[in-house]
Sequence to fold (528 residues):
Amino acid sequence: MATHTPIRRALLSLSDKEGLEPLARALAAHGAELVSTGGTAKAMREMGLEVKDVADLTGFPEMMDGRVKTLHPKVHGGILARRDKQDHLDAMEAHDIGPIDMVVINLYPFEQTVASGADRETIIENIDIGGPAMVRSAAKNHASVAVVTDPADYDAVIGEIEGHGGLTQEFRTMLAHKAYALTASYDAAISSWFAFADLGQGYPETRSIAMTKADELRYGENPHQKAALYIPQAVRPGLAGATQVQGKALSYNNLNDADAAYELIAEFRDGPPACVIVKHANPCGVAQAADLLTAWNDALQCDSVSAFGGIVAVNRPLDEDTARAITDIFTEVVVAPDADDAAKAVFAKKKNLRLLLTGELPDPARPGQMFKPIAGGILIQDRDNGMIRQEDLKVVTKRQPTEQELKDCLFAWTVAKHVKSNAIVYAKDGATAGIGAGQMNRRDSARIAAIKAKEAAETHGFGEARTIGSAVASDAFFPFADGLISAAEAGATAVIQPGGSIRDEEVIAAADEAGLAMVFTGMRHFRH
Fold:
């Protein structure tokens, strides 16, 4: 049977005193002497508990605005002393140091202070020194000392004390792991603040990243791979914080694809009702319309074959009619800011479908960084928040684009930003007509997108492929005229592309010969 080590003396120092009373009472009821610092000691005395001040233990008062109170041999000696080494025990006796069997601490609220918009001096004062020192000391000596840093563990600690009179070695080891994770993430937050906010360094020499596991996923990209969802300590709006209303557990692929849909639909957050359908992290249909149901139908008609088993995202709260239409085909995940009760009732009939409600959509122009592991390292880059407006476009052909062609160009360009390279997107009247993604050359992407548009026309009974009279977007410049010629053959009448190729003049000449209008953005959107 596991040995439960009793708690004879506990030191408690808490910024957040939620849950303190039941824990302190349980310790006191089982004979533990309670030692504490200012505010925590005052709170426990108000509970009617007997408490010894740290100042009484050390013989030194708190000083320097509380910066120095626990940094003392009678505190750290009591925590760090090994109970199995006679010379440690002799040193404790010689210097009148009593053992401390439990340390209960949460740290100064540094991140909350930063988030509140506090001034620099206030932020610096909320860098805890004594707390992390005690946490690390107790965690190092977890063979004898329990270190409790997470209020979520209070009930388990109380249960062990009340049920067994103390804590096991296994329990103390688990607590030590959490303690070091806390100090690591705390230091990472401080380091990041100095680098990014205080010094304005976007890419410091050393980078520490702290994250908390939010969920154990069903599996990774394939069932034999394990996976989990982690979120940064500084929580920001995003898919990771969405509420899952229903459906089976999410997998790695579900979240990866849903995030692609979420990021793309965010591009349309301030526009008309819009719908995005994503498959394997690539959009296979995108549309804007007067209402969500029409947007869904227009998006679906771009590539209804690929939409099977896909991810759907919308920029408006879901209604019953749209929910019914979405559930007419097999859909893995639906992402929306919200859904009314009638829509939720429709989805509830599809028990495996995951409904994620985000509450809001992020600003597509927000700053941020993206991380990608490679063998032996991690690539970090700024997120692609580049935006192009109509006034940024440069017309390079003899024919000027019409107003509708310009609208379709910008719509296609927005979608192409979220399509894997090489990306080609045909769009007409606020809906995608064909999407070519992830090909090794741009000509093939243009051809594949046109083939899909032709198939869609046959499937849905269109009189002609929707690429006829469309605008076509290329995420990077056309290195040769062949890709542009393929787009013209598919019926496109306007082209939007970054420009910048050594063969731009050749491509412009091909556009003029085909009677196309073409605009350059001066910005590319590779997505690998």
